[in-house]
Specification:
mainly alpha
Length: 387
């Protein structure tokens, strides 16, 4: 029988998320209509942030394996929140067993959970093998298994983040499905790409893999030459028709799109910033590879989630960028409250006049611009510098 992929979550201790991103993660963690897969991604990025973990503990939509993880890394306050979820513990005693593993657990909470587990016929202590379901070792074991189910390998690629050793094992596994190799081609680091390029037969059997490598900003000139040579081996027709990046992205899981938003190229970011999943779209803004030119283009977009514009306006990196601020002020998709805080008093008379005349923005912002203009004229500030 093929190995079944276990639900896996990272080990405790990652750094807390940046302030703007943290607020976004907290909103998702508190949403009772949230997507279970997204909750798994939230807990991966939340680290040990107590407020986020407590929100996940309270949320009826949080998957059981995430609650087990919260029990393993959460504060005493988070464990108390979790212990109050008695219907969830009755349905899955593993949650209660994970709570009891904390050596510092409040005695009252411990007694309550122990009694609850006895009521449902579950042992207070989890089986010794239970913690092994967490961490990367199980993922690596599946990736190295030459008999693994291709569907399991696809899940490993989705869950592994950017682990180079797991990526290499997947690339070398003959049973890894093409979708998995396409994803690795898009986000893999240089060492993994080199191994993938060596799989000439796989590249020629599915040009999407080769085209994914060409879209990866970490692919150097030497790798690109080899990939194009592999495509040329397919004939002129195939080499002239690269698979559109949009099509490569379309079949990806939420987790894979998140990784691509963080590590992909400009074209990938411009597609993913409009992703219907808000978390994916916001990951584009937080990508270390995004440039101010891209942010300016996004600030002008009217078909992005308003929280993307909110994240840009709240970033200290861009508050001093006058073209970006001007784009946000003129974008009707920018929330009015956000636009009002972008420094109308710093605009020139000419810029304020343009805002007053801009019928696409809210009436509230127009009136605020008029008030700022009148105030500037009353002070004789007509020569104010513009953006």
């Amino acid at each position: 029988m093929a190995d079944e992929p276990a639900e896996t979550l990272p080990e405790a201790g990652p750094a807390p998320p940046p302030a703007g991103k943290r607020d976004h993660l907290l909103r998702i963690a508190s949403d009772p209509r949230g997507d279970p897969e997204v909750f798994r991604l939230v807990v991966q990025q939340a680290g040990t942030d107590d407020e986020i973990l407590r929100a996940l503990a309270r949320n009826p939509a949080t998957p059981d394996e995430v609650l087990v993880y919260v029990a393993m890394v959460g504060s005493q306050a988070a464990l108390a929140e979790l212990a109050a979820q008695t219907p969830r513990i009755r349905a899955n005693p593993a949650i209660g067993q994970a709570i009891l593993r904390d050596p510092h657990l409040d005695p009252g909470v411990r007694a309550g959970i122990t009694g609850l587990l006895k009521e449902v016929g579950a042992a207070p202590e989890a089986p010794a093998a239970a913690p092994a379901a967490f961490g990367r070792e199980n993922l690596l074991k599946i990736a190295l298994n030459p008999q693994a189910d291709p569907a399991a390998l696809n899940i490993v690629a989705r869950e592994t983040g950017a682990d180079e050793e797991v990526f290499l094992a997947l690339v070398r596994n003959a049973r890894a499905p093409d979708d998995t190799l396409v994803y690795i081609g898009l986000v893999g680091p240089p060492g993994v790409l080199k191994e993938l390029v060596a799989q000439t037969a796989r590249l020629q059997a599915n040009a999407s893999i080769a085209n994914a490598i060409l879209e990866n900003p970490d692919a150097d000139d030497g790798l690109r030459v080899k990939v194009r040579a592999a495509l040329e081996g397919l004939g002129a027709e195939a080499s002239k028709k690269p698979v559109p990046l949009f099509n490569l992205i379309k079949g990806m899981s939420t987790g894979q799109r998140l990784a691509l938003a963080m590590k992909g190229n400009k074209d990938a970011r411009m597609i993913l910033v409009k992703d219907p999943n808000e978390m994916v779209a916001l990951e584009v803004v937080y990508s270390p590879r995004i440039t101010e030119t891209e942010v300016l283009a996004i600030a002008q977009m009217r078909d992005v989630n308003e929280n993307v514009l909110r994240a840009i306006s709240g970033s200290k990196l861009y508050r001093g960028n006058k073209p970006i601020i001007w784009a946000l002020l003129n974008n009707p998709k920018t929330p009015t409250g956000v636009a009002m805080g972008l420094g109308l008093g710093n605009l020139s008379e000419k810029e304020l006049e343009l805002l007053v005349k801009n019928r696409n923005i809210s009436g509230t912002l127009q009136r605020a611009a008029r008030a700022a203009l009148d105030k500037k004229r009353a002070r004789g500030g007509g020569g104010g510098r513009g953006h």
